Amino acid sequence: MELYSYWRSSAAYRVRIALALKGLAVDLHPVHLLQDGGQQRHAKYQALNPAQLVPTLVDNELVLNQSLAILDYLEACYPEPALLPQELSLAVQVRAVTLDIACDIHPLNNLRVLQYLTGPLQLTEQQKLHWILHWLQLGFQALEQRLSRHAGTCCFGDQVTWADICLVPQIYNALRFGLDMSPYPTLNRIYRHCIELPAFIAAAPEQQADAQK
Predict the structure, then answer these.
(1) Distance between CA atoms of 59 and 61, rounded to whole angstroms?
(2) Which among 37, 66, 193, 212 is least buried, having the fewest CB atoms inside 10 angstroms?
(3) CA triplet 6, 10, 14: central angle to 5 degrees?
(4) Are 178 and 128 in contact (CB under 8 A)?
């Protein structure tokens, strides 16, 4: 398998965590989203992923984009360790939290959205930061309320699931922008636990070969 990734991409970070948890080795191909005009826009990568986003997973003839689709593929092909609960009622709640993060929170602070705000819309850096923090706070308030009902050391009990795999990169991203995490004790506790786990350490942005030191 091959993974096209950017060290600080939240979506690529999710996939790296899942691969590490399942003990799967991949050939990692860095795609720098800022250098050379954005390497994701280069013709060779566009041919692989017309959306010009990371990650992209290549497994023999399969070329797959979208981090959640990749998680689904890995879960089907490599079911151990399971990253979704067997119980349906719990599994769909894990999926719901996963979608809360990946579909409602993350896109609003994605790089291309932020570049549009300060580019064509001509927002200042301070206005951009206000945008980022507003949507993070709104999303995290809902997550804190939801996960306080289910969390142990992880989002749902004490076993890592897709919810944790999505939450950790999102909090990492929030901390980069200076979000005060004190209003979200449940989220903060889960984050502090997970980032000490070996798979999360291996997948961390700073551990990647293309990380900017």
Answers:
(1) 6
(2) 37
(3) 95
(4) no
Residue 17 and residue 199: Cα distance in Å, rounded?
6
> What 3-state DSSP class applies to 155?
coil
Fold that domain 88-199 belongs to in CATH: Glutathione S-transferase Yfyf (Class Pi); Chain A, domain 2 (1.20.1050)
pLDDT digits (tens, 9 = 90+) for 173-185: 999 999 999 999 9
**Where do the H-state alpha helices sit in 100-197?**
111-118, 125-147, 162-176, 185-194
Task: Determine contact, residues 163/119, Cβ cutoff 8 Å.
Answer: no
The low-confidence residues of the chain, meaning pLDDT below 50, are none
